[in-house]
Amino acid sequence: VRGFRALIMGPPGCGKGHISEKIVKKYGAVHIAAGDILRKHISEGTNLGREAEKYISKGALVPDSLLLGVIGTAVYKAGKRNWILDGFPRTLAQARHLEKVAHLDMVINLQIPDEAILNMLKYRLVHVPSGRVYNLGSKAPMVRGLDDVTGEKLERRADDRPLVVMARLESFVHQMEPVIRFYRKRHLLHTIYGRQHQSIWPLVERYLIKRWGL
Ligand code: AMP
What we know:
The protein is of the alpha/beta class. It contains eight helices and seven strands, in the order E-H-E-H-H-H-E-H-E-H-E-E-H-E-H. It has helices at 16-27, 34-44, 47-56, 64-78, 92-101, 114-121, 162-185, 197-212, and strands at residues 5-9, 30-33, 83-86, 106-111, 124-127, 132-135, 189-193. The chain has a five-stranded parallel sheet, with helices on both faces. It has a two-stranded antiparallel ribbon with strand order 5-6. Helix 1 (16-27) crosses helix 8 and helix 2 crosses helix 3 (47-56). It starts with a strand and ends with a helix. The model has no long low-confidence stretch (mean pLDDT 91). The structure holds adenosine monophosphate. The site of adenosine monophosphate (AMP) has 18 residues, from helix 2 and helix 3.
């Protein structure tokens, strides 16, 4: 039996990573997170990472010429397992590209008000090598500033500064409108409204049970 191929969409900082983590744990899905892949390249100092960093630090989108290859490889590697794509596509062109390389089963669209996002991002810390995300308000690490699993240092993302977040939220709405229409037309879109990860996950879970019988 082929696994499910899901896409999770939502404004930056809305908790996509957290919800994806839950899906990974419950369904053994592969999490393909565009931002995590790019940050890993940056921390490893690859050519791609150096190029991508110029865009990421400004809150701008990384050009498709840098991104499409790494996403395609990740989707190919996930093969027939359940997978959840996070942070890609972010433009109509990327959605069209994805349609050519993979058949999607569902698109989960998270809708969270801006002020709830700004509040969550104030307290976000990440462990860059693994992509694990913490929040000093709702999911603090066991030892302040250190990753629970490896004990390595946690970092604030450079693009979580309030001004950069505002730029990211603005360009997100602008870019995602056509992507949302694209998936709505294909009857793949399921929108979930909420303010916090804790209240959103049960809604996502209920949808997955209903949609995928899991
Ligand atoms: P994220 O972790 O998803 O918030 O992504 C962090 C940053 O990586 C974004 O602000 C963009 O600069 C870049 N990025 C992630 N996904 C994409 C994408 N699909 N297209 C272009 N740039 C992306």
